[in-house]
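Appendix B. Raw example, untouched.
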Amino acid sequence: MRKLLTVVVADDHAIVREGLKLLLSTMDHVSVVAEAADGEALAKILRAGGADLAILDLGMPGVTGVQFISELRTIAPRMKILVLTANIEPRTVRAAIAAGASGYLTKSGDPTELTAALDAMLRNEVYLSQTVRFAVDDPRSRQPPPMTDAALSPIPLTRREMQILSLSAQGLTARETADRLGISPLTARKHRENLMRKLSLHNAAEIAAYAVRIGLPIG
């Protein structure tokens, strides 16, 4: 008899969460024990009890790109992480695996890949979606790729700065950023100005380009 696999579904779109739960409900060895719509909620769930696997959307609020994977590994070191995202940027794929993800699926992929990914993880193997396998020569290797700026900024950034960078790169205004982070629009604007000065960035296009370069999701 196969061991029951407990899963937390983390995505900010309710329709995606429901779709995933429906797919997972057809697998007799899988049980969805919780769901989260943002990074803070997911971290709280894992601190309270955790699960065998987290299906993680890199683009949801409160997720600072692949750095968040490392944070989750610290909270729940034995839990496996399956990234499910629209981001097919090769550097993001490589950085996610290097940070500790056990699999990487794209939202444009075939639904049957979810079953294949879970089966691979039960065998302690790394699974990559067909559409991104070109990005990693050997997915079993968790060593960082030669491009050392893939996962982290070459200029050290705080967690808050990473949040501001990610949200700014997604095109959010100061007010929208403030709402996401629970701060005032003035504070959000000041954070963004300080960040741009620190990174020598001058406009929204440069912010987005920098975020992509270090592996942060921008959509």
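End of appendix B.
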